[in-house]
Description:
This protein is mostly helical. The protein has helices at 2-9, 11-24, 29-45, 49-65.
Amino acid sequence: EAARKKAEGSPLEALHLAEAALAAEPKHPGALAASLLAHRALRTRATNFWEIRWLEKEIGRLEKALGGAA
Length: 70
């Protein structure tokens, strides 16, 4: 819940925190989920075609890492 609120309110900060956690533990489910939420929040705000495509690719990668359950 806290990760969701952070991702929605400040997705870049949430992403930085998730990346720091993933650097320490690359498969940490909570950090992967927080990263996914942050990427989704950023995707809703993106207007640049290439940024949108990159975010969509990252979202797919994170969903796969979480077993498609996210």
